[in-house]
Write a structure and sequence with these properties.
single chain, alpha+beta, Immunoglobulin-like, 4-stranded antiparallel beta sheet, 16 strands, elongated
């Protein structure tokens, strides 16, 4: 930001009004949910002073302005190989101390300035997309997410972002504000090197490289117990019942003894055949025993 011909410090309560660039820049985003992000910013205590400034320098991004005058109070630009941020306002301590007095916390203050310091100290690579973890279980979905920036560290929308892994080339889904994501399923166990490439039109925006590991252990190995909600639903649909313990099962089952009487009737059309079949073997045995003197 260029200095004002008349450097003045104005006092008065105000909440910085973010520009479109400030709403999407990762240094000022306090929540991944845009609606929640706006609510957090609108809930911050007002600042009490701001410096009168001139117009922004060439190549600078204005992140926030004074709501009454439209003068820049937060801006960013690259300088040489580094980044420079200017805050032309004061009493930021109120975003920490005052929040505790209203029953809140300083989470927004900490995320803003810790994230800002990390972003300033990190070299801009153009493509800052990586898997959410470096190690996955077998069967676990692999999620890639991140942002694409131009040479001024501004988020790039409308870029073509591709993931190259295991000989495949997969497109990313654009989520807005320069953010892109991709969910990959079915990777076999082992190490998988990958490259993320981004371009817009004929211009290459950069690439990100790395590798991830898929372990042979599956998600079922991590939780061998059953899923109660799924089992209860299966029992409901199939007309059965779901029991959470043995006692409830035993109380449901009727274990009292019952006597069941059944009568079977066998009929023979020619009864003498059955009688002859029973008597002949007996007579034969009796004859053999008598001949051998066993009777």
């Amino acid at each position: 930001i260029k200095p004002s011909p008349e450097p003045l410090l104005y006092e008065g309560r105000f909440v910085p009004e973010r520009t479109r660039s400030g709403r999407v820049h990762p240094a000022l985003v306090l929540s991944d949910d845009p609606r929640e992000d706006e609510e957090i910013w609108s809930g911050l205590p007002p600042l009490l002073a701001w410096n009168l400034t001139g117009p922004p320098r060439e190549g600078a991004q204005v992140w926030a302005v004074h709501p009454g005058t439209g003068r820049p109070v937060m801006a960013f630009r690259t300088y040489g190989g580094g980044k420079v941020v200017a805050f032309a306002c004061a009493t930021f301590w109120r975003w920490d101390l005052m929040m505790w007095g209203t029953g809140g916390t300083n989470a927004a203050f900490s995320r803003l300035f810790c994230g800002l310091i990390r972003w300033l100290s990190k070299r801009s690579l153009g493509v800052e997309i990586a898997p959410e973890s470096s190690v996955y279980k077998s069967g676990e979905p692999v999620v890639f997410s991140g942002r694409v920036y131009d040479r001024f560290s501004r988020p790039v929308e409308g870029a073509t972002v591709l993931l190259r892994i295991d000989g495949r080339s997969l497109p990313f889904k654009e989520e807005g504000s320069g953010k892109y994501s991709l969910t990959l399923r079915g990777l076999p166990p082992g190490e998988h090197p990958f490259v993320v490439l981004a371009r817009k039109g004929r211009k290459d925006l950069g690439k990100a490289e790395g590798s991830l590991l898929v372990e042979p252990f599956s998600l079922e190995d991590m939780r061998p117990e059953g899923d109660g909600r799924v089992l209860a639903r299966i029992a409901e649909v199939s007309g059965g019942r779901y029991f959470t313990d043995v006692d409830s099962l035993l109380s449901y089952i009727n274990l009292e003894g019952r006597y069941v009487e059944r009568t079977y009737k066998l009929g023979f059309r020619r009864g003498w055949e059955l009688l002859l079949a029973a008597v002949v073997p007996l007579l034969a045995e009796w004859g053999i025993r008598r001949r051998k003197g066993m009777l």
